[in-house]
Design a protein that fits this description.
This protein is mainly α. It has one domain: Up-down Bundle (Ferritin). The protein is 83% helix and 0% strand. Helix 1 runs parallel beside helix 4, helix 4 packs antiparallel against helix 5 and helix 5 runs antiparallel to helix 7. The longest helix is centred in the middle third of the chain and has 28 residues.
């Protein structure tokens, strides 16, 4: 694979990953204000933490997908790369469910499914390129934490998060 093709691939995976981020960000325009209004557990981070963490995680996701893509392209890695794209959609959908539509139960169901997909992707990426799987471990840990936070906030705010 030429350097140009590898570079274009990396740019492409960054664009795909951050397009997923952008879909979720549209729903999160008022997230900080909404988040401040909610009752939260004592271990909940301030809203200012989420943006930087997600930026790093999306960059790592893109690099991990690129590393897998480099091992035979989309044709050879189609299954796990398809799952990767599906999880980007589920990730973006969570922001709509939680922040835009205030649907705590559906957001929790979404993040639980997202968590399962991430586990599958970590395993799939690891089999192709261990470094790619390892690069998704911070994402898995963060979504594990976010799942617990989603559940706790939903339970503390049944009147708002239905």
């Amino acid at each position: 694979m030429t350097v140009l093709k590898q570079t274009m691939g990396l740019i492409g995976w960054q664009l795909i990953s951050f397009a997923g981020a952008a879909m979720g960000a549209v729903a999160s325009v008022q997230a900080a204000t909404f988040y401040q209004q909610l009752a939260k557990p004592s271990w909940a981070p301030p809203s200012s933490v989420f943006g930087p963490v997600w930026t790093i995680l999306y960059a790592l996701m893109a690099i991990a997908a690129w590393l897998v893509w480099r091992e035979g392209g989309w044709r050879r890695q189609r299954g796990v790369l398809d799952l990767f794209v599906i999880q980007l959609v589920l990730n973006a959908l969570w922001s709509w469910l939680f922040f835009a539509w205030h649907r705590g139960a559906l957001a929790f169901a979404d993040i639980a499914l997202l968590w399962l997909l991430i586990v599958g992707i970590v395993i799939g990426f690891w089999r192709v390129r261990p470094l790619a799987g390892a690069m998704l471990l911070p994402y898995l840990l963060w979504v594990s934490f976010a799942s617990a936070l989603n559940f706790a906030v939903w339970q503390l705010n049944p009147q708002i998060l239905g």
